[in-house]
Design a protein that fits this description.
alpha+beta
């Protein structure tokens, strides 16, 4: 709301966004490692992006250890990202523990605008 995401809680009957008639926009969050920056992060994926990754990974039992390459399409600052799933994977025994974005999202949703 007001240009920021928030959790939809309509299943509990108390979603402020739904009550105010805001559009619902589904997103997924993928725990990832950016090797160039040596940092763990969460990628926010749209429904279309996640479907593209699942289509590319149809022979894999899990995405864990997969190498996802994101690149910018033509179109400048408003251009879309292109997703590619590389054939090679990383040994999952060398990866950090799985993380979920729940706590980070709660922090972001609760943050006050400056």
């Amino acid at each position: 709301m007001n240009g920021r995401s928030q959790q939809c809680s309509k299943s509990r009957g108390d979603c402020e966004g739904c009550a105010n008639g805001k559009d619902e926009k589904w997103t997924a969050y993928l725990h990832a490692i950016c090797w160039e920056a040596n940092a763990e992060l969460f990628l926010e994926l749209t429904d279309a992006c996640l479907k593209q990754i699942f289509t590319l990974s149809n022979k894999r039992s899990t995405l864990r250890g997969s190498i996802v390459k994101l690149s910018k399409s033509k179109g400048g600052i408003r251009g879309r990202y292109v997703v590619d799933l590389l054939d090679r994977t990383i040994d999952t025994d060398t990866l950090p523990e799985v993380r979920f974005p729940d706590e980070l999202l709660k922090k972001l949703w609760g943050a006050k605008r400056a």
